[in-house]
Write a structure and sequence with these properties.
Length: about 300
Amino acid sequence: MDLTGKVAIVTGSGQGLGLAYAKELARGGAAVVVNDVRQETADTAVAEIVAEGGKAVAVVAPVGSTETARALVQAAVDNFGRLDILVTNAGILRDKVLWKMTDEDFDAVVNVHLRGTFTCAREAVNRFREQGEGGRIICIGSPAGQRGNFGQTNYSGAKAGIVGMVRTWAMELKKAGITANAVCPVAVTAMTETVPIFKPFIDEAKETGILPDVIRREVGMGTPEDVAGVIAFLASDAAADITGQAISIGGDRLALWSHPEMTETAYHDGGFSADEIAAVWPGTFANNLESVGEEFPAEVLAVTK
């Protein structure tokens, strides 16, 4: 994808998925504002991009506040003259079951993922509208936000909220030529290494350098580099008509998440009382309830038992 002359911000891009996104955008010709909370990590990421012939600068600050969002946009404008692409990738985990999750656990995750996405998108859109040439908002969601995940009330809630915001922004920003999409990646990172169902396969891959086909294809999990292509695609002119979507990518699999739809309906003149719902439920709804959590192939489940 030719991104020559474009300028991108990638939050949380000092390492892992964010660094893979930043490098891919730079390879396409975009100048990149790298963001991380650690100066050394950010500087190393910038050095790697520059060593490959790209252009990059660093902004060291935690995502969440309006001040950080404004600093990121200002860095893009001051160093490269404009802004065309925002990738909101920054994230943290504070996993605990509901009854053990503290206010601090909840607020920390929601502040970075949900509020950070909102503040950065708002500042980027203000710049896009000022330039009058459109723009790209690419927000990083998660399968956990689509289906839920044990121990991740804060994370799942924030990621579901991100997809909801993207759908709203797609409507609000259409006239300005600004697209908004969510990407739900699955990749081997420091965050996924802690997930019990993935650990045996990741440990094996560290020894062999290979993830089995069932993981790459059926689960759709691979390397951060496997995800980066969809970021560059959505940032490019080729994706000018794609907006409001939630796209899954990982390993050898690319997929599109559906928007929620009503799957079963019933009608009753004058509305439903509790007793009338109880009467209609078994025949109309009981056999069509949705599952929760991700569903994995039997081959994967067998390894983790």
